## 1
Amino acid sequence: MDDTSFQERFQRIAPRADFCSLRLVEERSQHVSVRQNIVQPVTSSEDRGAMLTVVDGGGLGYAATGDLSQEGLHQAAEHARAWAKRSAGHSVLDFSRLQLASPSGAYTTPVARPWASVPLGEKIDLLRRVCERLKTDGRIVDWEASLFYSEHETLYLTAEGGRTQQRLISLVPMLSATANAGSDTQIRTFGGRGFCRQGGLEVLDQTGFQAAAPRIAAEALQLLDAPNCPQDRMDVLLAPDQMMLQIHESIGHPLELDRILGDERNYAGTSFVTPDMFGSYRYGSDLLNITFDPTRVEEFASYGFDDDGQPAQRAYLIRHGVLQRGLGGLTSQARSGLPGVANSRAQSWNRPPIDRMANLNLEPGESSFEEMVAAVECGVYMQTNTSWSIDDSRNKFQFGCEWGRLIENGRLTSVVKNPNYRGVSATFWRNLKMVGNQLQVLGTPYCGKGEPNQVIRVGHAAPTCLFGEVEVFGGASA
Amino acid sequence: MMQEYFADLADFLTSLLSGNEISTCSFAAEDSDFVRLNRSAIRQAGSVSQRTLSCDLIEGLRHASGELTLSGDLALDRPRLAALLEQLREQLPYLPEDPHLLYATEVQSSEHLGDNHLPEDSGAVVSAVLDAGHGHDLVGVYAAGGIHSGFANSFGQRNWFSTYTYNLDWSLYLQADKAVKSRYAGFVWDPAEFSHKMDAAKAQLAGLAKPARTIEPGEYRVYLAPTALVEIVELLSWGGFGLKDHRTKQTTLLKMLEESLTLSPQVTLQENTADGVAANFQAAGFLKPDRVTLIEAGAFGECLVSPRSAKEYGVPTNGASSWEMPASLDLAAGTIPDSEVLRQLDTGVYINNLWYLNYSDRTACRITGMTRFATFWVEHGEIQAPLNVMRFDETLYRLLGDKLLGLTAERDFLLDPSTYHARSTSSFRGPGALVEGFLFTL
């Protein structure tokens, strides 16, 4: 990314307006995959373009283009200015009231072992070896190992001289084993794609990628022979790779200020949280501590600045169970009058920033895994999300996991398949009984939201957690 | 103009090949206006112009794929395409032969040129929408513009598809989660038709003003409007119909294969490319047949077969994408006239929309999801009250099987409003469904 020439081009084309910014994004990625021991097509991608944003007369407009020539940027700026004029006086906010920053700074993901330091052939050989270890039995009917690598660079400029540059590097490792017997099929994965992190190939060692393959295959086979998860109201012990989904859907989304302001009501939905709840609402038990933390360097959605140029800072959203603040960037804060965080983020150059989660973590408690198991008389330990559904105000949810194990009289006993549970966000978190002392850093590459639609990377670090009085059930199939 | 630009790039790519090299390339572009609305005001307004080229460099059974975002200016894009080709060429020696590589070698060029009848100024349309929403709480998005896609290979095949569409997807809110959701999509913006749809939404909104009813979990007779049924059929597209999913036993319709379960004989579902709005070619150059019958009179029909699966499993491809997902779903009509729906529902739930569907047991094709927007409690054929949201959990074999009372004679044609990465050209044409014993769980 030749940022000097873009800065010069931008200064030449920036229209006279109350505010103008350019956000240049360049993402290079590569996907390498081996399925059933056969190397799949290796795909490389280079995506680059720019979004011009103009605020004028109280209106805001944007235009995105892949044409990064001076003329291309000039045309985009004119389109953005035209949209600002059209929306002036008709917008949800008088954007001239917004104190848009002219920030300065840089952020780069620390990388110990760069992707490019290992030749493509060696990466393929690694995946082949791992893939072969997934095929342990004739009943394993499909198996795959893959890596998705990306370098996401952003240059953010404002007409008033603001300039930030960021380079986010991430890796998504994936394993799956599909076992079948007759009309029953069970799939076990490497935490879905939950072991995604920022960093280079060191992520593979950090997450135990290579060692996981035989366990995943063995657990897929276990599930074929396992009975269905029982149906009852009982304790559930959720592993971090299910906790991340629970946090994401029933804390993250309902706390987004743009949902509370109604922007998402036509698509992603609204929220059961209302503005008056901040500062006093008991969201969960005293053990519930939730932080917004884009400063944790290895986590999937870390950054130095959001896409409005606001500096990233760690903040408590829920402390000792009480709701403190929401997930809202500069625009949502101005509209709602509520405190927020630096979380205006866009999928890429061709979508405008909206309120996003970034890294949303459940802070560790004091209980060991063994202590939590010992505390359960009758319950189920569940790992790895496989099904998620929640109502549009993020209250009534139903989630399913890949793998379950009964807990009886303080001991882990038999494996069960199709473990599901359902509940209501507004009461579920108040039944948080114990919080583990071991944090696991996870995330998801696929959080969808916004009109036009955007999919974005999100991080969630969480320990294993124990909940009481949960409605648990199994599958329809025997 | 866009077509010539792509043709020029494709010719340039071919000119760079040497020896036994072969290339295929796909092109996707759009010039779209997006105006996001909330509380009958503009939230975000802007334009997006994007062009993406994907190409596969093939030598024997070795191949490497690359994708580039382009500027639209040939002088700038040619050098970048040449650099991509060189990068792919450097990768080839590291790659083993791909036993599942399959690409079209018989040249079958095609051309679909959509006419652009869109309003020149999206701002004027948005003004009309805001005027119509004045005094109401309107939220949604207007998306409009040209969508283009192309395919070319070094054998000389050229395929082109362009269309110019708008899609206004909006809700009128009464309070909290009580709203009426509507869509107005097509090729020619007709103010009278829009006005008719808006008036219909306002009329339904009045029905939401009554105190909302909450029902106990249990089994109820329900009517699923086409805008609700589409959510179920679209979920089936994820893993239901692809040959790879069938051969690896991951299909959510596994019990149709292994236990010969069937749906109601009233259910016939097709991938109807001929009557849809999506392109009829795919990324390896194969053309899609006009129709593929996925479910015929309740029994499983044909799979969608990508070229890769075709090679892997030794069957002919039917031009499916690599994801083996349908894009132009067509569910056959039934016999219940729309005018009879409330009377035949008698007492139960009229569901206009479903939300956030997912499988709660893939093998059993058990689906969970929520009611959303205008959903009503009905008694003796009369709408009584809006219903608070309810969660359902049902297998497909019940809700479109032995519990399906009937499908409506009239069908809706719904253009997919999805805009992830690019504006969708997928569509659904289908009826509503009357179902008994529909299980609500929460």
Note: The radius of gyration of chain B is 24 Å.
## 2
Amino acid sequence: MRRRGTVHGRERLWGWLFVSPMAVVLGLFLALPVFMAIWVSLLDWNGQSNPFTGGEADFVGLDNYRALLTQDGLDRTLFATSLRNNAYYVLLAVPLATSAGLLLALVVNQRLLKGRGLARTTFYFPSVTSSIAVATVFLFLFQGSGAVNSLLSWVGVEGPNWLNDPRGVTWVLLGGLGLVDPDQPSASLAAHDFLGLPLTEWLAGPSVALLTLVLMATWTTSGTFMLIFLAALQNIPRELEEAAALDGVGRRRMLWHVILPSIRPVVFLVLTLAMIGSWQVFDMVYVMGQGSPANTTLTPAFLSYSSAFDSADFGQGAAVAFLLFAIILTLVLLQRWLLRERGPGRDRLRNRGRRGTSERSRA
Amino acid sequence: MTATDTTSRAAEDGRTMAGEGTAHGRSVRRLHLGARALGRRRPTGDARDERPVLPRFPRPARLFGYALVAGLALLYLLPFLLQISNSFKTEADAAADPLALWPSTPTTITYERLFGLGGEADSVPFPRWLANSALVTVLITAGRVLFDSMAGYALARLRFPGRAVLAGFVLAVMAVPGVVLLIPRFLVLNSFGMFDTYSGMVVPLLVDAAGIFIMKQFFETVPRELEEAARIDGAGVLRTFWSVVLPMARPALITLTILSFQGSWNEFTHFLVATQSEQYETLTTGLARFVSGGLGGGSQFPLKLAAAVLSTVPVAVLFFFFQRHFIRGANAGAVKE
């Protein structure tokens, strides 16, 4: 028998050998880049030469951030536009994809539904296919004379030219009701601005083109969310539902007072994942217009990419990326705080769920 | 951390939920039951009670329910059906009647053109994209399976200084939003002289934090007694890992292989910032450039759709054969983003 000490010595050596590829790759290509980018966001650098050995990069301090946040100019207008677009995108896509995922999960969780395995496969398939291939298909379906508008014409609706329509839906809807003139919404709003963008633009809502992206995002992500919800639904202790049923609880109250409270942490998880993902929308934007029409599908992620790689302003691009990082971080923390567990009612339900599970494991 | 806790529980359940039929499913389940019998986890593996808690819906509601499911299924399938049918249409036909599920004059000209059999010189070097995608996918998948399982094993089982720090590091890395890394990755590749090379495309993706996490979770469920028995028989760490633990991890390895294949086959943003020349274009970057740039002239939609169909086929085939591994990944990977 070997002595304990030698065994430990070996484990120490092998442990480090086993983790070294991981540590090297993640360190060099995930951790180090973040710090390099912080440095580059303080530079005026065009992507040529090496910014770390001097060369042609000028240290400009916080100028890149200033141009995005406080100085009048194209940079700030573009950044504000991308923020507006993405904010509307998040406001629409997150609730839509989450509720679609929950609906699908509730449907395929019905124990008596025939073919629920097949349904699950169908709903999940869009999530595993390449976003580029899916975007190609959506470009085709949503053309002016495409399949979606042909479908709409069957029911007598003349669809818009989806991907080329920069009109904001707020003004389209209010204009349709005859409340405002969509071309000249309000002079007093247009006179004021925030981050260099007139209030009329902020309030214009998502453009028709951006709505198309929201629909595509909902279609591609709801399957993943369905699976996460499904796992949670199947984790609800059966005793809990049975006890409620014995008490004469109907379907609707079962959903609101038993099922939803028990999967609350998972709803929270999905909302967070959806929000983080939605603030990073990039692939779709790249394929479906690169910001066009009229910058109404421009997002900070794409702006960061195009500042760096199209306009050769890497400092500006890195600054956009860090501001986006800050936004995501702030919103995750805010969401955590807003959706934190509180109130005695919820705690009681949660504990009942816990007790149910631990009893089962003892059995 | 509630989020991680929930997800690991979800992952656990996805695993059992997915293990339907097939010899493999059963072996996964048996293994997990074994692990549970040793007192690690509560038993979710028991056959789920299929009796409904509430009485059945009344007949009209049931019919409505089936109609709803059918409608939803159509909504999720129709884009794919239209994609396939329109890839077999002529350009005029696709423009005139995009909704027709059967082409009026079916043609395979788009597919022939993609492989250079159409007779005309083409701007779409499809075989090149395909070869590049296949190459990087194989390399990345092989790397991830090896390195992720090594790291996962070390973090789960080996005692060495710095282990806790590294485990924390892996979790922290998972929390970095991918989009923040777009420019930084380019910076690093550029500094190392790896920009616009195959190594620049492959090396940064050889390891992924989510995969390490999956493997670590799995190795933690393997009974220690097995390893101890191997040690007593005189096997070293490497031999124990390679001949005893890794073969047991087959279900997890299959999942990891499939997820890595799917992930690297569909990877877009990394290849976009890691390369510049057309010779390194993959199915995703090549198709994206072709689709986003080609709107000015003829729309060429049947050709684009055919390229999209072909780039979907490998993942689709994999998906239909190994669904439960994707499902497990969806739940395990929920920590990833």
Note: Chain A touches chain B through 117 residues (CB under 8 Å).
## 3
Amino acid sequence: MDFQLTEDQRALQRATRELLAKRFGPDRLRAAVGDPAPDRALWRELGAAGFFALRLPEEAGGVGLGLPEAVLVLEETGRALLPGPLVACQLLAGVVDGVASGEKIVGLCEGGREPVLWEHPAACEELILVESGTECRDGPGEGAQGRTCGVYRSAAEQVSCAPFASVDPLTPLARVTELPRTEALALDVPRLRREAALLTAAQQLGSAARTVELAVTHAGRREQFGAPVGSFQAVKHLCAQMLVRAEMARYAVYAASVTDGDLDVTGAKLLADEAAVRNARDCVQVHGGMGFTWEADVHLHLKRAWLRAECWGVAGEAEELLAADLIV
Amino acid sequence: MDLTCTEEEDAFRARLRRWLGEVLPTLPAKPAVADWPGRRAYDAAWQRMLYDAGYAGLHWPEDAGGQGATPTQHLIFLEETERAGAPYVGANFVGLLHAGPTVATEGTAAQRARWLPPILRGDEIWCQGFSEPDAGSDLAALRTTAVRDGDHYVISGTKLWTSHAEVADWCELLVRTDPDAPRHRGISWLAMPMDAPGVTVRPLRTLAGSAEFAELFLDEVRVPVSHRVGAENDGWRVTMVTLSFERGTAFVGEVVACRRMLGALARTARDNGRWDDAVLRRRLGRLHAEFAALWRLTQWNVSEAAAAARPRGGRPGGGGVPGTGGSVFKLRYSHARQELYDTAAEVLGAGALDADHEWVAGRLSSLSYTIAAGTSQIQRNIVAERILGLPKGR
């Protein structure tokens, strides 16, 4: 057992962080608040760097890496708050032409809930719909074909939508009013859901770790009563608890990326959601009055964390699944 | 990142499992909680069985009498013994997990030869003389004095919360050897024989009703200078070595125990109807995720210790001194365990008021988890200052 990042994994983490720091720094983040559409040039650059084709086999032009590596790069996008349907494009790179290279952007949405929300509708060329398990059994495929039912691709213009005011200024949303089932895709639905949950959890982890840094940096600089606020125990303890949350989520997410087990992923998503949401709240608190302004970036982390916590398994469902496992 | 075990590790696990299956049924019944002499005898006998089977001081270095096992093997050992319901380290706790590793890391060859083998065989029990009435979490405020008189120290003072003092043969004792030095600099670490003239032990009853600890009154106790581990006035650094062991690996087996208890609790809830309460059920589900993550954190810390030890040839303990990551673990673990017992009380209802119920004893003793070995408040300061680098408070 060697549950540590390998040298190659560390290098990948470093390279991704550097690329994103160079191409999506604080100024770009602020600009994206006014115009959250994914930057196509950056998207192609990510594609060229193998970001989307990470898990495709080398003979298919991919990088030939696995889930742990995908988790590490998605974690970095969570840190950087990079906008766009990153999880969707990571999962569909081998399925929809043009996604791996970053030429095409696709969205992925869950059909089994209300409202059905679609991220970045204006930026996507296609929308891939994943139906819930029940709908899958009632669908067109049965038996062996049941694996193929439940996932449909549709060109963006074929999808009927209603406007939806997104709480996250970096993630525009539309409400899908009629579930499009244009072309069935042969995909393993449980696996797709599991991986979507895990990669979303990885982004939450990145955000949770980033807000610890933002809080610590602010607490070390900001002076009140003649001393850095970070020297006050009340502030220190908030920051310490933030780190504990992020660390718990980190090892749960990393372990789930290795085992790829349903319950491991479920638990990891639960803890990562909690870490991202609560850390962002505490980060606002550490920033005090400044934290409540639109100018501080902290609210962007909180809003995105809320949004991700609603995707691919919410807390109540996760807790029920984990509870059920206790009495198996 | 790899969570699978090597063939060697799997073989080690299989061998251990087989051995546990053979010896555990032969153990006598556990003595009562209040029966300290009985508990000492029971724990020492178990230690002797481990020794004879080659499992004593598993992760200690071989030149300290240990087995030089890898941190992963140690983890497997703790996991399997807990899973099999083997006795807890009990009265041997301080010797095996604090004093022994400290002597192994900081002691001279003669000190290692004198103190380590009896700990491993279960022949000698150690207690911990750190805290004082005015020096608990602020350990550096300790006032027990040791005045040099030829080749002896003459020690006077009071120690509190001295774990296992009633039945101990030795005490790992922190004393002030230089009253004029800055408070962290004038402390030394001594091994004091408990039968030395001038040592008085008064058992201290805890809120759990048991006497786990004692007060220790030291009246001009003479301890040879050769019993000092580490340099004179360097005891604070030696102590940090001890504490990092305590915070790093001492709770590993308990995480496994918590996971087992959680399963048992869920089945109890299913049987008594409390399972139908969705709020309670969800809390149990959340605790499931919590303890699973604590186990992953443990695996990460152990792998990290193994990696840190590799270039240095495996000393100390084959696994390096556990780092401040232990504070992160202890913070979350101690609160999660208290929450587990509170949840258990909800499942048990009025049954949780029955002092004879095994869960109740656990619930009461879990109150010490956020206090002992550095309170949660102190741990948060450590995390904030040493890991996150926030400025020291005033």
Note: Residues 312-322 of chain B have pLDDT under 50 and may be disordered.
## 4
Amino acid sequence: MDTTQQLQHLYWRAGFGPRPQDVAAGLSPRKALRQLLRDSAQFEPLDAPSMHFEDPLGAVMAVPPGGPMPAKNPVSTSMVTTPDQAPATMSGSPAEAAPPAPVAALPARQPYRMGPGGVPRLRRADLTPEQRKMQNQGLREAFINISTAWMDRMATSPAQLREKMTLFWHGHFACRVRLPGPALSLHNTTRKYALGKFPDLLLAVSQEPAMLEFLNNRQNHKGHANENFAREVMELFTLGRGNYSEQDVKEAARAFTGWSYDAQGNFKFRPQDHDEGPKTFLGRTGNLRGEDVLAIILEQPAAATFLTTKLYRFFVNDTPDPARIAPLADAFRKSGYDIQDLMERMFSTDWFYDPANVGTHLKSPVELLAGIRRTLGVQLDNELPLLGYQRALGQVLFEPPNVAGWPGGRNWIDSSSLLLRLQIPAILFKNADFAVALKQDENDIAPNLTRADRTVKPTAGAHLPLGPLQQLLGATPAPAQPARLSEFLLQTPIRPENLALVQQAAAQNPVPAEALRNTLISLMSLPEYQLS
Amino acid sequence: MQRREFLQTSILASTLLFVPKILHALDRGPGLARLADAPGARRLIVVQLGGGNDGLNTVIPYQNDLYYKARPTLGIKESEGILALDKGLGFHPALKGFKSLYDQGYLAVLNGVGYPNPDRSHFRSMDIWQTGSGSDQNLSTGWLGRYLDSGAPGCQNPYNALEVDDTLSLAMKGTQRKGLAFKNPDKLHQLTQNRLLSKVSRETGSDHHHAQVDYLYQTLAETASSADYLYNKSKVYKSAVTYPQSEFGKNLKTTAELINSGVESRVYYVALNGFDTHVRQHEQQQKLFTDLGDGLAALADDLQKNGQWANTLVLVFSEFGRRVGQNASNGTDHGTANPVFLIGGSLQQKGILNDAPDLANLDQGDLRHQVDFRGIYATVLKDWLGADDTSILGTDFERMRGLV
């Protein structure tokens, strides 16, 4: 495997793919990794007014009364996919399995609740259908703005590793809520600690209102535990099944009682709702609180193994290799769970560049789309279709299927999703003008063409600057260009018969720019393009 | 370039040429497109009511005062044309199609179906129903996908489980095998058509490094051959039966045409959405139930005319029911247990199979479930499809003996 291939592999795994100029720069993989770490050092929150929803009508985030036993909110939530009939509360998660209550009657509802600053606000349940519709529209737009802004960063930000890590944690701490504010807050917390110390990340995420809501910790009361958060924090976030007992779940749930949030969306510990009794958790006894439980969890070697395995599967190979994972997990734990240190080690091993790990990762829908944009420098007039493709392909940001996140791997591929994936390049790049024509002096394919003939045409507002590709191709003669571009676009060697097909497609059009367009679309339409 | 022209010359179609020979041999061999125990093999049609159908206004306890107390304006009165059944229950007036199926002995109602610790989130509860998990488990495969994986007879190809939609539901995704989703056979065929397809491809080695590549090519090959098969088969029969003029009606018609054409599929999956009736429930249910009842009655009629009804079973479910008490907007909010309908030409037990939900014994205003939905899955898997329900569902759920 030559240096260029190694470099491309690193850019695909630690980010969203190489740009032509990255390959042309020709750094050694080691230098490139250092550069990636440097470029990802800064934390810049994702935020803009358009990502927030200021409800002119009333609060939608339920705020419990101060007592330890709030009345159960009977109203629950809606799929984001059918929001125009959505009921109240911020969460995409259910009301809890309620503590046993002798009374079957519904609690009387107050028409108003106190909002921030003591302003009474209407309850969502009391809104007219039109008001609800308006509200849902506002919520949807905010989510669209968050998603597209993040997709832009994946495609364009120099902080490639931070973006990729944030996507990993987005699936790891999978959470789905109705309100954009708490979702964005959780996102920025994972973004902030994405390369930091895992204990900080875990505590911060656990105290995010979105997570407390999603995993029902607001229904976890002294004397009436709700075990959802306690269970998932161990099963999915830290230890994995088999490394804790049902009794540990019960005790941990008691420790998390009192973890809640206020009307402004800030974490709030409610001492009167916290179970002060002694608890025995993973062999430790005391009046444990939530923070103690998280700390005890991270003392377990199983936590480092679990997390390292999950990272290995995401960044290296879907089939874990315990022999390679064990020393990494050990170092991870010894470093106080320093995520950046772990990633640097992982990307610095010889086996990371082993052919068995190259071109074997099935791109997730988000990786596929962000990768097309990044590697080709595509500019889009309208990003909404991309969200449509994400949905059709089964990965909508901020809408994981459940708390376990996206299963990934071959799960992405079925007959219909594969057909759509293979067509996306053609859909994107058919029958529209490229924003950039080949420059006369860069065009050594056929220098005497008119400008019109040098303009490549893809689609519907997707603009493809050809300069960088020209830089990559350098003096490569036209017949050899398909092969050169295949090395850039595909992470597995192109089959000779496929190369012949691509060459045929290129030859169908005598205009060099058109030939180049055909070459690109053909290469990206190969099944191999689904792999990185 | 015209779209059509593009598709014919597209690389996508051309790459099918290069599916490794060994896969072609598997895929295009004679006799593979045949169910092991066809003809007369049993099939299942799953109808998913998306959004959480209000079961209490579907199968109405119209002789129970508590029902009207909880729903002063939303409760449906006998005088509005409730279609009386048995045990003090009646269908919603718009479910005339269901009533006719019931009268012919083709319909069974299971009341109060749900699961422990019910979840009131649409997407999570649908996930639970589609995967067949408990509310405390997160599975990444669907119950029908695992049925495909289980190697039950006649589940060797994607077209052995078909979803009439553009994308495939989780329910139909197994680890090894997945169903096939498409809106109509012609469109699918056009995408994968290539006149060179029959040319023999060059052999390519298959070391583990290329396992993923082979997997993609194999999926593509299976898709292409399934598309071929469905396209050619589906030309056999065009339905003359009148279906509702709706998306759902059209999808049921497609389903019946595939079945009557002799397509050897074990599972069909069709969805009808819009049941999230927080407001104006009356109008919405009226429309949806007309669609649902008339559509399934037409399907039964269509299949009967072609001798395919006796080996067909339809399972109708929704991710949850609604709360017993109505809300302030003449609608209902998310609830728990709900009726499930089994419809088919060979039901052993028909009509109302168990007691009406107990409105005097609620859990915080919600129904308590009487039947675990996975018991129904187990019954369908084992007694109808002859599959190993225990391994597919991961646990041994109590089956309903002598039901199907």
Note: The first helix of chain B runs from residue 3 to 9.
